Amino acid sequence: MNQTVQIRFPKNIHLAIKREDLLHPYISGNKFRKLKYNVQEAQRQGKTMMLTFGGAYSNHIAATAAAGKEYGLKTLGVIRGEELTGKVNDNPTLSFARDCGMEFEFVTREAYRQKTEETFIETLRQKFGDFYLVPEGGTNDFAVKGCEEILTLDDTEFDYIACAVGTGGTISGIANSAEDHQKVLGFPALKADLSADIAKFAIKDNWQLITDYHFGGYAKTDESLIAFINDFYAKTNIPLDPVYTGKTVFGVIDMIENGYFPEGSRILVIHTGGLQGIAGMNKQLHKKGLLTIKT
Ligand SMILES: *Cc1c(COP(=O)(O)O)cnc(C)c1O
């Protein structure tokens, strides 16, 4: 089901894309990996609801809602931004999640910042009853365990494994299961220094963050990125999302062109999914009169 696509560059450099985005129609890419053992743990604990946190266009919110529908768990999304109350119909991500059965609690940015605090979580329990808590972005030990299943025996031929980084769960799982000869390159989609978060979960010292391709920060884009995504799609028929995978593939190809990789390198980029976010991004780009992503 998940195919790998190869692209050749000069100096005998091979770039392959592992299509984790095709794992499941709605529980996309790394979010499928991250939710797999969390759903099993929720069921083992006898919970009937999963609660999690996310922003208005969050891939994790969409995936959690879809997983809840598929596995018979109720889902509650604590969403950053009180102003979104009553605006679900205008937002493709939240509409999708609602149609999967997710219920929402919209909170102020200030309240959202308390998402890991026990008192805030206790308030949520009093309001909504018992739930299985999945952290923002889905990263915990169960998520990392799921992401350790991304690389398989077919992937041992690669010298470099590249992936997008948000909270760091995905790269941690990949680094844990990489072979000793493989180097793991993470492309943060935001400006924050994520090394300490990754070090909590990654057991080996085989990974490195490439911090030059965040394009100004989380969910920030520019015309060169959007044009790159459209061009890449036209040439390869592989869609990329503007928040994560577009920045990663842009970065890897830029590094190939700038001579970062030695002759004969075999590079595997993990397509972590996130394509559901394109609709929301396009709405915003269109409103500003900017170039949009072709689908
Ligand atoms: C969430 C997400 C990531 C980041 O994963 P982390 O485990 O949070 O680092 C990368 N790519 C896509 C498409 C995502 O949706």
At a glance:
The modification N6-(pyridoxal phosphate)lysine is found at residue 31. By secondary structure, this protein is an alpha/beta fold.
Question: Roughly how many Å apart are the termini?
Answer: 21 Å
What is the CATH top level name of the largest domain? Alpha Beta
CATH architecture of the largest domain: 3-Layer(aba) Sandwich
Q: Any idea what the radius of gyration is?
A: 19 Å
Number of E-type strands: 10
> How is the largest sheet built, in terms of strand order?
1-2-10-7-8-9
Overall structural class, as computed from helix and strand content, comes to alpha/beta
User: Which band does the percent of strand residues land in?
Assistant: 15-25%
* Number of individual domains: 2
Uncertain segments of ≥5 residues (pLDDT<50)?
none
Instruction: Spell out the helices and strands N to C.
Output: EEHEHEHEHHEHEHEHEHHEH
Large-scale geometry: globular
User: What is CATH's topology name of the largest domain?
Assistant: Rossmann fold
Helicity range = 25-40%
Bound molecules: pyridoxal-5'-phosphate
Structural notes for this entry:
This protein is of the alpha/beta class and 295 residues long. The protein has two domains: 4-26 and 141-287, Rossmann fold, CATH 3.40.50.1100; 30-138, Rossmann fold (3-Layer(aba) Sandwich), CATH 3.40.50.1100. The protein has helices spanning 29-44, 59-71, 92-99, 109-112, 118-128, 141-147, 169-177, 195-201, 223-236, 245-257, 277-287; strands at residues 4-9, 13-19, 49-54, 74-80, 103-107, 132-133, 160-165, 183-188, 207-209, 266-271. It has a six-stranded mixed β-sheet, sandwiched between helices. It is globular. The mean pLDDT is 96. It binds pyridoxal-5'-phosphate (PLP). Pyridoxal-5'-phosphate (PLP) binds next to helix 1, helix 2, strand 7 and helix 7.
